[in-house]
Write a structure and sequence with these properties.
By secondary structure, the protein is an alpha+beta fold. Among the domains are: 3-98, Double Stranded RNA Binding Domain (2-Layer Sandwich); 156-195, Sigma 54 modulation/S30EA ribosomal protein, C-terminal domain (SHC Adaptor Protein), CATH 3.30.505.50. Helix content is 29%, strand content 31%. The chain is built from three helices and nine strands. The chain has helices at residues 14-31, 70-97, 156-166; strands at residues 3-8, 36-44, 47-55, 61-67, 110-116, 124-130, 170-174, 180-185, 191-195. Strand 1 (3-8), helix 1 (14-31) and strand 2 form a beta-alpha-beta unit. Helix 1 (14-31) packs parallel to helix 2. It starts with a strand and ends with a strand.
C-alpha cells in the first residue's frame, strides 16, 4: 500500500499509521482498485485535523475532519472518505452500464415528422420537436439577499438607478403608493418592469 504521510506540527505515530491503513483497506475493498494515498495530519490551536486524499482513476476523493484528538479526526476523515467512495463506485457503475448507448444530440426530445402544404405535390416535410414538460434539475441553492430589495418606497427612476448601482438583475421595490414592483434585466440588457397584483 503506497501511502504518503505529512505531519504539520504533529509527529505521526505507528498507532495512527495502523488506523489509517486499516481504514484504507476497507475503502480499497469498496473501490476494488489501486490508488495513491496522501495523508496530511496537522495540529492547530488544540484542533487536530486530518486530510486523506485518494486518487482512483476518475479523479481524487478527499476526506476532511477535525476533532479534539488525532485518532477521532482520522476515523471521521476515513468515514467521510468511505461514504464518498461508495458514491463514487455507484456513479461509476451507472455510467459504465449506460456506456453502450450511442450519443443522441436530441436526447430527451421526441420527433414528429409531418408535411405541410395544400396538396401532396406542394407539401414540404417538417420535423416537430417535443421537449419534456419538466426539465430535470439537480440541487437548488437558495441564498437570502437583502441587497435586491429596497427598504423604502421609491419612484421608478430611483429604482432603476438603484438597481444599476447595486448591479442586480432583479430588484424588488414599492412605489410611492405602496404597490410592489419588480425590475428585471433581460439578457439583452433592457430593464423590464413587473407589477405585482
Amino acid at each position: 500500500m503506497n501511502v504518503e504521510y505529512t505531519g504539520r506540527q504533529y509527529e505521526i505515530t505507528p498507532a495512527i499509521r495502523k488506523e489509517v491503513e486499516t481504514g484504507l483497506n476497507k475503502i480499497r475493498k469498496i473501490l476494488s482498485d489501486k490508488f495513491e494515498t496522501k495523508v496530511i495530519l496537522a495540529v492547530e490551536k488544540h484542533r487536530h485535523k486530518a486530510e486523506i486524499t485518494i486518487s482512483p482513476r476518475n479523479g481524487p476523493i478527499v476526506g476532511l475532519a477535525q476533532a479534539g484528538d488525532m485518532k477521532s479526526a482520522v476515523n471521521q476523515a476515513l468515514e467521510h472518505l468511505e461514504k464518498q467512495a461508495v458514491k463514487y463506485k455507484t456513479r461509476w457503475r451507472t455510467k459504465k452500464r449506460q456506456a453502450g448507448r450511442k450519443f443522441n444530440g436530441n436526447a430527451g426530445q421526441e420527433e414528429l415528422q409531418t408535411a405541410v402544404g395544400i396538396s401532396e405535390d406542394t407539401a414540404v416535410p417538417i420535423v416537430v420537436h417535443k421537449f419534456p414538460a419538466v426539465a430535470k434539475t439537480t440541487e437548488v441553492h437558495l441564498v437570502h439577499s437583502d441587497d435586491a430589495v429596497a427598504l423604502r418606497p421609491m419612484t421608478l427612476e430611483e429604482a432603476i438607478k438603484e438597481a444599476h448601482f447595486r448591479d442586480r438583475d432583479v430588484f424588488v421595490f414599492r412605489d410611492p403608493k405602496g404597490k410592489v414592483m419588480v425590475l428585471h434585466r433581460t439578457r439583452d440588457g433592457k430593464m423590464e418592469l413587473i407589477e405585482a397584483p
